[in-house]
Amino acid sequence: MRWCPSSLLHLLCCLRLRVCSRRGRVRPALRLRELWAYVRLVLLSLQYNSLTNSDVVFDSIFEPVFWTVDRITRWFGMVFVCMVVILTSSILLICYTILIPMVLFTYSPGWVAWHLCYGHWNLVMIVFHYYKAIRTAPGYPPAVKNDIPFVSVCKKCIIPKPARTHHCGICNRCILKMDHHCPWLNNCVGHFNQRYFFCFCLAMAMGCMYCSISGRNLFLDAYNSLERFKDGQRVGVPVTGMGLLIGILPSGQTDYQTPSPPYTFRDRMVHKSIIYMWVLTSTVAVALGGLTFWHAVLISRGETSIERHTNLKETKRLAKRGKVYRNPFNYGKFNNWKVFLGVQKRSHWLTRVLLPSGHVPPGDGLTWEIFPFKRDLVPV
Ligand SMILES: [Zn+2]
Ligand SMILES: [Zn+2]
Predict the structure, then answer these.
(1) Which of 119-128, 182-191, 362-371 has the lowest mean pLDDT?
(2) What sections of the protein cross the membrane (predicted)?
C-alpha cells in the first residue's frame, strides 16, 4: 500500500466530500458505517504500511498544523515585508535626522568621512540585495516534457524533480536548489536568489552591528537622561537605574547638585528614538548575525538548509554500514564560496562581492556536475 504524507488530510477531505455529497439520500446509520470504514482504512494504512516510520507518523499527525502554518505564512507574506521596510525606514529616519547631524558637528573630518562612506555603502547593499531577493524568482523546474535528468517525482505537482529541487508548501510549487521559504522576503530562497538572500542578511547584520556598536555611548547617555527625568522635569534627582548599575558614573557621583538645563519634549523624543534604535539594531544584530553565520557554514559545506538534514540522515545511515557519505555538491570550502558568489576572476571580488551586482549564478539549477571546479581551475 503506497503512502504519501498528506494522505490523512486527503482521506479526511474525501470523507467530508463523500458524506456531504450523499447527505439527504443516505440513512444516518449507513453514513456512520461508511465513516467508520474510512477511519478504519486510515488507521490500517498507517499500521500495515511498509514505508511507515516515525517520520511518516509525525508528518501525518502534524499535516493539518503544517497546512495551517503554510496558509497563514502565505496570507501574511506582505505583512512581514512591510514590517522589514517600516522598521528599516524608521532606523534610517533616526540616522538622518539625529545621528548624522550630530556626527557632522562633533566628529573630526576623518571620522565624518568614515561614517558617511561606510554607512551609505552598507545602506546600498541592504536595499539592493533585499529588492533583488524579493523580485528574483528562485527558479522552477519545467512543467512540460523534457529530457532533464531527475531524481524523483513531486507528489504535489506531479512533475519530475531534478537534483536539489524540493516542493514548497507555501509557494505550492517545486523550487530549484531550494533552501527555505523566507517569510521576510515573501519568497522562496532557491538557486537564482540565494546569493541575494545571503548578502542581504550579511549587510543587514553588519549594518545593525555598526549602529549598535557606534551608538552604544549615545544609548547610555539617552537612557541615563530618561531615567533622571522620568518623574518630570526636576533638578537634583539622584541618578538611578541601569545607568548607575553598569558604572556609567564615577563612584560617589550619584547626585546632581547643580541645576541642569531644561529637559524639553524634543530632548525626550531624541533620547527615546536613540534607545529604540539601539535596542532594535542590537536585537537584530544578534539574531540575524547568528542566522547569517549558520548560512555561511552551510555555504562552506556546499549544502542548503534542507540538504543539511538529508545529508545528516544519509551520513548516519551509511555509517551503520561502515561507509562514509560524501556530499556530491561540496567542491571544497573556498571553491564553494567562489561558485556561490559567482567569482570567476580576481576583479569579481570587487565588482561582484563588494559592490551590488545582478549576475546570475553558474549553472541552470536543473543539472549539477559533480565536483566541476578543480582546485586550480579558477585562478583566484
Ligand atoms: Zn512540487
Ligand atoms: Zn516558497
Answers:
(1) 362-371
(2) 75-99, 111-131, 195-214, 235-253, 273-299
pTM for the complete prediction? 0.76
The Cα–Cα gap between 83 and 96 comes to 20
pLDDT tens digits, one per residue of 234-264? 444 443 333 333 333 344 444 455 566 677 7
Environment class of 158 (CB within 10 Å of its CB; exposed 0-12, middle 13-18, buried 19+) = exposed
CB 240 within 8 A of CB 225: no
Helix (H, G, I), strand (E, B) or coil at 318: helix
**Centroid of ligand 2 to alpha carbon of 69 (angstroms):** 12
Tens of pLDDT along 119-141? 999 999 999 999 999 999 999 99
Q: Please confirm, yes or no, whether 199 is among the known catalytic residues.
A: no
Ligand located closest to 186 CA: 2
Residue partners of 324: CB distance under 8 A and separation at least 6: 315, 318
Query: Could you tell me the distance, in angstroms and rounded to a whole number, from the CA of residue 161 to the centre of ligand 1?
Result: 8
Judged by DSSP in three states, 289 sits in helix
- The angle at the Cα of 301, spanning 296 to 303, to the nearest 5 degrees, equals 85
Instruction: Report which bound ligand comes closest to the CA of 165.
Output: 1
Residue 201 Cα to ligand 2 middle (Å): 18
Distance 164 CA to ligand 2 centre (A): 15
* Residue 329 C-alpha from the chain's centroid: 22
Q: How far apart are CA 103 and CA 93, in angstroms?
A: 15
The catalytic residue among 95, 182, 188, 208 is 182
Amino acid, single-letter form, for residue 269: M
Q: Nine-digit cell at 117? A: 562612506
